[in-house]
Amino acid sequence: MSYYTVKNGIVGILNALGLIESTETEDFSEASANESGNAFIIKCASGEMLEPDSETLADRFYDKQKWEVKVLFSKSSQNDIINRDEMHEDKDAILRELDDPTNWRGFVRHLKYSSWEVTENKSNFILTVTLLVSDTYTY
Known about the structure:
Elements: H1 3-16, E1 20-21, E2 39-49, E3 60-74, H2 80-99, H3 101-104, E4 110-120, E5 124-138
Parallel strand pairs: 1-2
Antiparallel strand pairs: 2-3, 3-5, 4-5
């Protein structure tokens, strides 16, 4: 497979949840107000070669990749608890969809979420989901 195959596959899963890719590439420091709650940043953070298994043929190898997805959620001083609860409800839906093999089986060998984290600042929450992806390269 390739970078774009994996990225487009993950983006497709997130788009099905009503999320759109942000114009931001690293964080949401310049994000517009309408990106809150429906925008994400996706990046491939790292990769390493998986040890071959008994099914490995001489013309392929497996790349274990780490991907990060960040989703922006709004916050206000009047309803932080409600916003936090809604963010966690959305997080649960995102994890379910990303972890469901029927959603990723067509574009990667394996996809599993490894962790999630919520960071908070004065105006928003940022959910960061770390995914472990096994991709197959054929040559």
